[in-house]
Amino acid sequence: MFDELKAYVEQHRHLVYQWLKHLLSLEKSHLLRTELIDGFDEVTGSESMHELRGTPLHDMLVDAQEAVAREGWLYLAIRPAIAEWHYLRLQVDSVICEEIGVREFLQFKERLVEPREEEDQWALELDLSPFERGFPRMKEVSSIGHGVEFLNRQLSFSLFKEHRERLLDFLKLHQYSGVQLMLNQQVSSLEQLQKAVRQTRRFLKWEHDDAEWADFVDRLPVKVFEPGWGRTAKQVHEMMGLLLEILESPAPDTLAEFLSRVPMVSRLAILSPHGYFGQSGVLGLPDTGGQVVYILDQVRALEKQMRHDLHEQGLDVEPRILVITRLIPEAGDTTCDQRLEPIIGTENAAILRVPFRTSNGEIVQEWISRFDIWPYLERFATDAGREMASEFGGKPDLIIGNYSDGNLVASLLSRRLGVTQCNIAHALEKTKYLYSALHWREHEENYHFSCQFTADLIAMNTADFIITSTFQEIAGTEEGTGQYESYHAFPMPGLYRVLSGVNVFDPRFNIVSPGADEDVYFPYTEKKRRLTRLHDEIETLIYGESGNGARGELADRDKPIIFAMARLDRIKNVPGLVEWYARNEDLQKEANLFLVSGNVDPGHTPDREQGDESRHMHRLFDEFELDDRVRWVNAMSDKNFNGELYRYVADRRGVFVQPARFEAFGLTVIEAMTSGLPVFATCYGGPLEIIEHGHSGFHIDPNHGEASSHLMADFFRKCREEPGHWDTLSKGAIKRVEEAYTWSLYASKMLSFARIYGFWKYITHLEHEETCRYLEMFYGLMYRRLAEQIEPHPPEEVPDTA
Question: Which of UniProt's keywords are assigned here (predicted)?
Answer without folding.
Answer: Glycosyltransferase, Transferase
